[in-house]
Each structure stands twice: as C-alpha cells, then as structure tokens.
Amino acid sequence: MSKKNKYSTIDYGSYLGLDKLLDAQKLRSEDLQENPAHDEMLFIITHQSYELWFKQIIHELDSVIRVFKSNRVDEKNLGTSIARLERVSKVQSLLLDHLAILETMTPLDFLDFRSYLFPASGFQSFQFRKIENLLGLDEASRITYGGYHYASPFTEVQQKELLEIKESGTLFDVIEDWLERTPFLQFKDFNFLKYYKKAVEKMIAKEQEAIKMSSYLSEKEIEMRLRMLGTTDTYFESILNPKVHQQMMDEGKFRLSYKASLAALLINLYRDEPILHPPFKLLMCLVDIDSNMTSWRYRHAQMVLRMLGRKVGTGGSSGHDYLKSTGDSHHIFKDLHNISTLLIPRSDLPELPPALKEQLSFTYSRSVI
Fold first, then answer.
1. Contact between 281 and 78 (Cβ < 8 Å)
2. Residue 308 to residues 56, 106, 114, 206: CA-CA distances in angstroms?
3. Is the peptide bond before 119 cis (omega within 30 degrees of 0)?
4. Which residue, 189, 352, 334, 202, is CA-closest to 266?
5. Residue 83 neighbours by CB under 8 Å, 6+ apart
6. Which H or E run contains 63?
7. 3-class state of residue 154 by DSSP
8. Neighbours of 292 (CB within 10 A)
9. What pLDDT score does 199 carry?
10. What is the pLDDT of residue 363?
11. Distance between CA atoms of residues 322 and 342, nearest Å
C-alpha cells in the first residue's frame, strides 16, 4: 500500500481538530437548571486550556529527560534543552496569567454552578501529576489530602504510568547525574575547596568586623547578628565536609548529592567563564521552573480563598489551606536555590589554573569517571 501524499491539502479546522475542540464545552448548569450559569463556560475553557498547556509541558520535559539520559550531553543538546526548559517557564507564566482571567468571575458567579461539580476536582488532573513526577517531586515531601495517596483518583493504568516515570528517571535524577559527571570535579591539581574555604573565612571576617564596628546596633543586636552570620562551621560546612552533607541528606535537609552540589556551586561561581554560560543558564531554568510552580500554588491558593473562603474543596480537600501548604513544601530544586547561601564575592574567587580552563568542555561523558 502506498503512503499518503505528504503534500495533500488540509484545511485549518481539520488540522486543529476544531470540531472536537470547540464542541468539548458541556455546561452542566445548562442541563441541570433552568437558566445556565454564564461563567461556567469561562471555568471550563480555562481548565481545558490548562490541560492543553500541561500536554505541551510534558512534551518538553520528556524530550529534555531523554537528552540527559544519553551517555553524552554535548553543547548542541545542552542548548536545545535550555531552549525547551525556557519554553516550559514561559508556559508556566502564561498559566499564572490564566488565573487573573478566571478571577474576573466573582464568588457569587462561581456559586451559580459549583454545586454541580462534586466530586470533580483539579486534584484529579492526571497530567499535572505527571508534570510533578517528571520534574522529580519527592514522594516524602508530598502533602496528601484526606489521607489518600496522590495517585488514588486515577486508574490502575495511570497509577502504573506515574510510578514508571519516577522509576525510569526524573528531571531531578538526570540533572543530578549530569552534574556529578562534570569534568572539573575530576581535575586533580585544582584544590578548589582549599581556596574556597579561605575565601569564605575572609568574607565572614569582613562581615563580622562590619557588624562589630556598627555605631547604631546595641550589644545585644550585635551578638544576635554575629550568631546569625555564622562561621565556616555552620551552613558552609555542608559543602566543605562531605560527611556533614550526607548527614543533612539523611535528615531530609538536602536532596542533591554532595558531588552534584559541589558542581552546581562551581558553575554558579564561575558563571562568567564563557564555557560555563550554558550550564549556568540550565541551572537557572530549573530554578525558574521550580519558582513558577511555587508561585502558581500560592496564587491558586489565594484565588481559592477569594472564591470560596474557608469552604471545603469540591474534591474533599481543605481548599485554601491544602494549596498553601503545597506551596510551602512541594519544592523540587530547592538545593539549587540554596546555592546562593554558599556564594562568595567575585573578587575572592579562586583563580582557575590555565590547564583547567583549557580542559573544560561542554561534553560531559559517563566514560570520564
């Protein structure tokens, strides 16, 4: 059988499947009450738009994960991955704007049809759970509602798919593996931590002196600020001492491995080296995506509070309180945010030896171990 002519004509509506798409808005209020609720159309279209954009996000995340699962991540693939992650971030920003459109509906407008939605809920969005799993949301960090597992609303086939995503390697997993393979971690003649510790001590000493010499702080305030400032034996020890880092991982305070954290710190500190621009940009994309997820959760929680007050959600959750708590806890790349705690001034950066600058490349190979 011959293939169809790849240049055969197609019209706009058929290509986009508009007959199905535009016929997919079924107002329950139209079937269940005499006067349809006008704003139910907005509610449906907004959520359908979300699901379409969720599909695009999944498409992008799948492709990036595949790139980082390969043995080599060269500069071309790194650039492609950055572009796709930036697209995810842009889509997330658009989804935040969707909430502003939905808020043109007043609480009374929503009550015109809300009673017809039980027990449907946004918690039943399978694609949103896929996105959380693809990004790498840690199971231990999840806040459940009603004592039920997050996957309980879904079919066995869907639950299996969610489990396979986690087991086959999430974005968090492949990025951690990539960071651990960065070549300068194997560079024997560059004792970065030795020079870094000296720079940290210099920075802290300078800040301690500024606090002590302050003319407007009381002795009690000086003591408090010095204690808050800490020393190399406090939060900096997590990067100076692998055992301390492991202990903090065991306590659930860190998730990213020591080697990956060290690589992320190096990339952040030496971001001005031309060859480290793409890796740094990639890490910032992940921070942006994580921040956008958190912003959306908080914004969603505020919208629910505005619309429903303290009413229970249609899916049985505590509504606003549940959504707000997920914003507090459902961080995925928190360790990348926390790298900022470990940064030192550019003027104090240990100088990279010429040989290291020469050997750095965009290609991180599993064979280099």
1. no
2. 30, 10, 10, 51
3. yes
4. 352
5. none
6. helix 40-69
7. coil
8. 18
9. 87
10. 47
11. 32
First to last CA, the chain: 51
Instruction: Give me the residues paired with residue 365 across strands.
Output: 72
For the chain, where are the E strands, in sequence order? 72-73, 364-365
The CA R_g of the chain, rounded to the nearest whole Å, is 25
Question: Cα separation of 27 and 34, whole Å?
Answer: 12
| Number of residues written out for the chain | 369
Q: Which two tokens stand for residue 106?
A: 């007043």
Question: CA-based angle 174:335:181, to the nearest 5?
Answer: 35
Contacts of 293 by beta carbon, 8 Å cutoff, 6+ apart: 92, 135, 330, 332
Tokens of 339: 């790298």
For residues 95 and 50, what is the distance between their CA atoms, to the nearest angstrom?
7
3-state secondary structure of 364: strand
- For the record, the structure tokens of 366 come out as 């599993």
pLDDT under 70 in the chain at which residues? Answer: 1-6, 71, 145-146, 183-188, 229-234, 310-319, 327, 358-369
Closest-CA residue to 78 (of 178, 224, 220):
178
The reply to whether the predicted model has a pTM over 0.85 is yes
Q: CB under 8 Å to 262, separation ≥6 — which residues?
A: 185, 239
Query: Using CA atoms, how far apart are residues 338 and 265, in angstroms rounded to an integer?
Result: 10
CA dihedral 338, 342, 347, 352 (to 10 degrees): -100
104 exposure class (CB count in 10 Å sphere: 0-12, 13-18, 19+): exposed
pLDDT computed for residue 306 by the predictor? 86
Q: In this structure, what are the phi and psi dihedrals at residue 258, rounded to the nearest 5 degrees?
A: -60, -50
State pLDDT tens for residues 212-255. Answer: 888 788 888 878 877 776 655 567 888 989 999 999 999 988 99
Question: Strand, coil or helix: what is 73?
Answer: strand
